[in-house]
Write a sequence for this structure.
């Protein structure tokens, strides 16, 4: 064989190899997370990563960017919806601008038991179905839900037991409806991303914090606050959202594997939530924090100021809001 023919043959062979490699190329699935990888949401994403890569035989390479290294929580919906990133984790309330219905989880003292929360987030429930269809209009869709537990209040120098304790104080919130709740109780809401909480408390940007108790542990918030008041006034849910165009571009088989992995991760974190919260409360106490429970009278005072929050929610969420609120109250 002469050199020109040999060269052509080698070229064709290399092209064939290239086509074969391209056909089995690994697809990246980058996921933005605002919390540290050591947090329970981070560990849950690591479980998801392991499940996806095993189930797809490495065809999907999951990359987790934790601690808001790519996007802050508030930036995730737009980043995922535009396709700037394949997936992201966001607090559900970050979708309130496009889908006001999501804030049913932040109605004061509505979903304040595990049974109520599980009924609301169950696949096929009116609450979950309605919310997922509304979020899907943003260019991203919910792949799975990540439990984060009940909302608590953080303070320094004493608890926040009644609305009177909140009056005139600046309060960290992470959503519109939580802000409405603080306003109704006489406080001044200040929107602060989760990744910026520590500095906000340290610098005195706000007087009172609002988060889930697992966040106190993962962010070591006992270094800047000394008291937890167990208000449990809202259920905090995070969602893992994928870009719709990216998702639809995957094969049915790959989507099936990812969905199966998502179900494993979703069920695991939901089933462990009570244990996760108990461990976080124990860690908070071990690190010097005082944990205060509300009395029935305290709770009645909070509920008494909450009606305007419900009125505002129904006004903004319309029929969809009434549907999920009615379902959640049953």
């Amino acid at each position: 064989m002469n050199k020109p023919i040999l060269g052509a043959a080698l070229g064709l062979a290399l092209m064939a190899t290239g086509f074969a490699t391209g056909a089995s190329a690994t697809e990246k699935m980058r996921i933005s997370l605002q919390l540290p990888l050591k947090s329970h949401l981070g560990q849950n994403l690591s479980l998801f990563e392991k499940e996806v890569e095993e189930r797809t035989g490495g065809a999907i390479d999951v990359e987790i960017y934790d601690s808001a290294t790519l996007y802050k929580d508030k930036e995730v919906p737009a980043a995922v919806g535009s396709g700037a990133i394949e997936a992201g984790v966001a607090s559900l309330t970050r979708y309130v601008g496009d889908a006001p219905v999501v804030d049913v989880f932040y109605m004061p003292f509505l979903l304040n038991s595990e049974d109520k929360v599980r009924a609301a987030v169950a696949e096929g429930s009116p609450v979950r179905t309605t919310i997922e269809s509304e979020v899907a209009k943003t260019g991203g869709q919910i792949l799975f839900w990540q439990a984060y537990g009940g909302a608590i209040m953080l303070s320094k120098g004493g608890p926040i037991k009644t609305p009177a304790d909140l009056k005139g104080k600046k309060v960290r919130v992470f959503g519109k409806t939580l802000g409405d709740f603080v306003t109704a109780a006489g406080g001044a809401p200040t929107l602060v991303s989760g990744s910026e909480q520590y500095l906000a408390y340290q610098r005195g940007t706000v007087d009172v914090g609002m988060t889930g108790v697992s966040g106190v542990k993962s962010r070591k918030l006992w270094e800047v606050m000394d008291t937890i008041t167990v208000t449990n006034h809202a259920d905090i849910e995070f969602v893992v959202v994928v870009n719709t165009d990216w998702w639809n571009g995957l094969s049915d088989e790959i989507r099936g594997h990812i969905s199966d992995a998502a179900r494993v991760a979703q069920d695991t974190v939901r089933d462990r939530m009570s244990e996760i919260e108990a461990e976080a409360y124990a860690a908070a106490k071990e690190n010097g924090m005082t944990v205060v429970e509300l009395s029935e009278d305290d709770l009645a005072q909070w509920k008494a100021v909450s009606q305007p929050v419900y009125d505002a929610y129904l006004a903004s969420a319309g029929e969809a809001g009434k549907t999920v609120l009615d379902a959640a109250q049953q």
In short: Residues 1-24 have pLDDT under 50 and may be disordered.
